[in-house]
Design a protein that fits this description.
heterodimer, A: 279 residues, alpha/beta, seven-stranded mixed β-sheet, four-stranded antiparallel β-sheet, 9 helices, 37% helix, disordered C terminus, B: 404 residues, six-stranded mixed beta barrel
Chain lengths: 279, 404
């Protein structure tokens, strides 16, 4: 599919601290096309959460330019960013973050409430449809505190879709769930991706989850070290590296074809192919 | 605004215990304010009514006869005789009354002759005050006709009206005759046509009303009167009106009730100020209470605020959620507080009574005062919410999202 590019990041730097400056992202470049289902992996401190905050329009890069859904979000002010988040982004967090004061369906309404106020018939139908999609229609009038962890996360997914955003960001969406709930939630994300053609960007530690996405961005120490696309059958061994100009390791491989570099590349590939990769 | 209201109301509703506690605080504060204000307002109104209700507000008299210094010789410096007999009456009173007649600010004009004397019956001798009046005019001030307890209102010829206590003292009733003597020794017999109760023991014990002309001859005043008693529409304008009359009639002395009751008015004023101070501190306490509860609430709800912000609620709207909570607490607390305050003052009126069983004084529930109380409590609520609202607006959603 020759998809159109929805997200384009150019030379993104992020530095924290006023006195002691720590650069967390060192000039990232990437593109995401419509309908892509991407995971961002990397050890703690690699900058993947920082990247997600930037993509989530919750934070601004110190340097660089991010274009999303035809808007250069690095040029928007706070209020415009808030409106942008409301219209274009859905969030699913590790901790479900439902509002405990509201019922399941009211939580699903929330993005619409923020945008347009009270829900009309059309939105009520949509919220009910979304709850039905995540399999929780019968719990719609329960307070969110009465639901289990997996159920809450599914309500959060329904909520993230309420305003029909083109991009959905998820931070460890299954991080807090048992294996069975994880599977359910992941399958749901996949289903929504296919049904609504929504871009999914999932930050995860879990190699297993990452392996089931279409594309993996691996971050180490604030650099994208790998950008891989699933091959046919989505077997890990069939992953092919994307265009070499994205990839630091690839660049090094191209530049100096030394024994050491080849060994390094092979070693990291071997390490990566193991499912129980922990940092 | 719908969204902000929805969230604010839900936050208050789900934090029931906190909401109830702070509401109780506001209710008590406002109730105390209303109760205190009504009580003091009623007390003052009652005192002022007693002072100005059935009495003249402004009195026009003949110029004071100054004390005359009698010089015995040039060297003998001073030997001042300090009797100030108001020996002259107002001889031009008819002109003054005629010219005052059309004055919009005056509600009663009553020319009066006063003098002292005694009522005598058998061995009993009671000091009295003669009041020569035109009954219909004096009624405008004293409402004698409607305050008769016996007999009929008539002061023609030798008819006089006596106060209830004086009649009891001398064992007299309507239709009896009584011997009255002036300070100068002139005496005559008068027929008691009626007995009045002006609601004031002093007056009931001493005042004797008779016609203006009869008092003139009895007290040897001729056709002069002693004073022209006036009531005015706006009782607190008495000083200005007195000033105006003084200018119009330079040869007279004009006294206003505000001048003669300066002490009372000063006392009322300081009472009002101390009541205001109390009310002010009550409001301050209420404001601090709301503020601290909302500040705690911002911390408690920081997760919710973070998620609402991540979903695209901007800073201003998040702040508004807390302002609305402050407003709701203030407004609901004020309404319930006003109801309790009025209830409290009614209970007070019904429980605390004079030995005779009458309420001590009517408690004034002034709608303007209540409106002001409501506005103050409501704006105090919003003011109290300002700092929490600002803190909530500053909250960074990223921190909340990552730390669960």
């Amino acid at each position: 599919m020759a998809n159109q590019t929805i997200i384009r990041g150019e030379n993104i730097h992020k530095t924290y601290g006023d006195v002691v400056k720590t650069e967390v992202l060192h000039g990232l470049d990437f593109k995401v096309d419509a309908g892509e289902f991407i995971s961002i992996i990397g050890p703690s401190g690699s900058g993947k959460s920082t990247l997600l905050n930037l993509l989530g329009a919750l934070d601004r890069p110190t340097e660089g330019r991010i274009e999303m859904a035809d808007k250069v979000i690095t040029e928007l002010n706070d209020d415009e960013l808030a409106a942008f988040r409301n219209n274009n982004l859905g969030f699913v967090f590790q901790f479900h973050h439902l509002l405990p004061e509201f019922t399941a369906i009211e939580n699903v309404f929330m993005p619409h409430w923020i945008r347009n106020g009270a829900a009309k018939k059309e939105q009520i139908e949509r919220a009910e449809y979304l709850l039905d999609t995540v399999g929780l229609f019968e719990y719609k009038d329960n307070l969110s505190t009465q639901l289990s962890g997996g159920q809450k996360q599914r309500v959060a997914i329904a909520r993230s879709l309420m305003n029909n955003p083109p991009i959905l960001l998820a931070d460890e969406p299954t991080g807090n769930l048992d294996t069975e709930s994880s599977e359910q939630v992941f399958d749901l994300l996949r289903k929504i991706n296919e049904e609504f053609d929504t871009i999914f960007i999932i930050v995860t530690h879990d190699r297993h989850i990452a392996g089931r996405t279409d594309r993996i961005l691996e971050l180490i120490d604030g650099n994208i070290v790998r950008d891989m696309k699933a091959g046919s059958g989505k077997e890990v061994d069939n992953w092919e590296l994307l265009a070499p100009d994205y990839c630091l390791l690839c660049r090094e491989q191209q530049g100096e074809d030394t024994v050491l570099n080849r060994e390094l590349a092979r070693a990291s590939q071997a390490l990566f192919s193991k499912n129980n990769y922990h940092d | 605004m719908w969204f902000e209201w929805k969230v604010a109301v839900r936050f208050l509703y789900t934090g029931k215990l906190q909401t109830l506690l702070i509401l109780a605080g506001i209710i008590i504060g406002v109730a105390v304010q209303i109760f205190l204000g009504s009580l003091i307002g009623g007390l003052q109104q009652d005192l002022i009514n007693q002072t100005v209700g059935s009495s003249p507000h402004v009195m026009l008299m003949a110029e004071d006869a100054l004390p005359r210094a009698i010089r015995i010789s040039d060297s003998d410096l001073s030997r001042t005789v300090t009797f100030t007999v108001r020996d002259k009456g107002l001889s031009n009173w008819q002109n003054i009354v005629n010219s005052l007649e059309g004055d919009q600010e005056l509600t009663a004009i009553s020319p009066t002759i006063t003098g002292s004397g005694f009522a005598i019956r058998g061995q009993k001798n009671q000091p009295i005050v003669f009041r020569g009046i035109q009954l219909d005019r004096a009624d405008d001030i004293y409402k004698i006709s409607s305050r008769l307890v016996e007999g009929e209102a008539s002061v023609g010829g030798n008819n006089v009206l006596l106060g209830r206590e004086l009649a009891e003292e001398l064992n007299l009733s309507a239709g009896d005759t009584v011997q009255l003597r002036t300070g100068e020794g002139i005496q005559d017999r008068f027929r008691i046509s009626g007995i009045f109760n002006l609601g004031n023991q002093d007056l009931n014990e001493s005042w004797v009303f008779m016609s203006l002309s009869r008092a003139g001859t009895l007290l040897n005043q001729g056709s002069d009167v002693s004073t022209i008693e006036l009531q005015i529409a706006d009782v607190f304008a008495s000083n200005q009106i007195a000033e105006r009359l003084r200018e119009a009639w330079p040869a007279t002395t004009v006294e206003s009730w505000q001048q003669s009751n300066e002490d009372l008015l000063t006392a009322l004023q300081s009472q009002s100020s101390s009541s205001l101070v109390i009310q002010f501190f009550v409001i301050v306490a209420v404001t601090l209470g709301i503020s601290s509860v909302l500040a705690v609430s911002v911390v408690q709800k920081s997760r919710q605020i973070g998620i609402l912000k991540a979903m695209g609620t901007n800073r201003k709207r998040v702040g508004r959620i807390f302002l609305i909570q402050g407003f709701l607490l203030g407004a609901i607390g004020a309404i319930l507080g006003i109801i309790s305050g009025i209830g409290l003052s009614q209970i007070f009126v019904n429980l605390v009574r004079t030995p005779a069983g009458d309420p001590l004084f009517p408690v004034e529930v002034d709608p303007i005062f209540i409106g002001i109380s409501f506005l103050i409590a409501t704006s105090a609520g919003m003011l109290a919410a300002l700092i929490p609202a600002r803190n909530s607006a500053k909250l960074d959603p990223i921190e909340v999202i990552q730390n669960g």
